[in-house]
Amino acid sequence: MWTDTHTHLFLPEFDNDRKDVVSRAVEAGVSRLFVPNVDDKTIDALLNFTNEYNNIAFPMVGFHPGSVREDWQKRISFVNELLEQRKFVAIGEIGIDLYWDENKKFEKEQKEAFAYQIHLANKNNLPIVIHTRSSMQVALDVVNAVKPNKYGIFHCFSGSYEEAKKVIDKGFFLGIGGVVTFKNSNLPEIVKKVGVEHIVLETDSPFLTPVPHRGKRNESAYIPIIGKKVAEITQTPIGEVASITTRNSKSIFGV
Q1: Is 129 helix (H, G, I), strand (E, B) or coil?
Q2: Three-class SS state of 225
Q3: Which CATH superfamily is 2-253 part of?
Q4: What's the pLDDT at 75?
Q5: What dihedral angle (degrees, nearest 10) is formed by the CA atoms of 102, 37, 5, 221?
């Protein structure tokens, strides 16, 4: 059994063949899909998707740092409202994104939105799924200040080995996706050092497609490709990679 801990199959990129994409994932042995939200404009599509595939797809609710602007407090109100209405498996994806110049203008607001959502996670006893892009230390500073009650995943981990150790020491798992298959990635070295016990697998579909499909749309059926690479790096039987990473996801999400 494989688990995709981070997939956006509700996005418009899948509108023409979503049923086929889900079928391919199931055929590939990916029988658990954890689905993070983006913002107030995507939540309806996310809920429609996870309601339709509720036997394998599990929703998160959150407000992505890339969407945070001056009006974030007004736009984020749906998160708390939905938490009072229905069950979610996590708050996500949340965090800090300082890659784009436009996002850098709102670093203060991003920190505030991130802290607010960690407080919501604590209030609702939920894990968190953290987005960090060009912002690892800034995100760690917020986590250190707010102190989540339950931990979760540093999604699409892209830091150093020293940062990986900090994340793991706090009780988080590293989200490992298609980047681990890229030729010039430093992830293989980090994965080899930390071992399978501290990671979960993810696609971040439709983004970050693994080799040999790089440059095309990503989908959850590619999880075994990522798993095979992890197996090679860590010299672990591929069946064990599937079982250990799925077990890790169960400990995070309780599903």
Answers
A1: strand
A2: helix
A3: Metal-dependent hydrolases (3.20.20.140)
A4: 97
A5: -90
Interatomic CA distance for residues 178 and 65, integer angstroms: 21
Name the region of 95 (left: φ>0; alpha: ψ -120 to 50; beta: rest): left
Three-state DSSP state, 79:
helix
Q: How many other CB atoms are there within 10 angstroms of residue 135's CB atom?
A: 26
Type of residue found at 215: G
* Residue (of 29, 17, 84) closest to 56 by Cα position: 29
Residues 6+ apart with CB under 8 A from 74: none
50 burial class (0-12, 13-18, 19+ CB within 10 angstroms)?
A: buried
Q: Give me the average pLDDT of each 10-residue run along the chain (255 residues).
A: 98 98 98 98 98 98 98 96 97 97 97 98 98 96 96 96 96 98 96 98 98 97 98 98 98 95
Where do the structural domains in the chain lie, given as residue ranges?
2-253
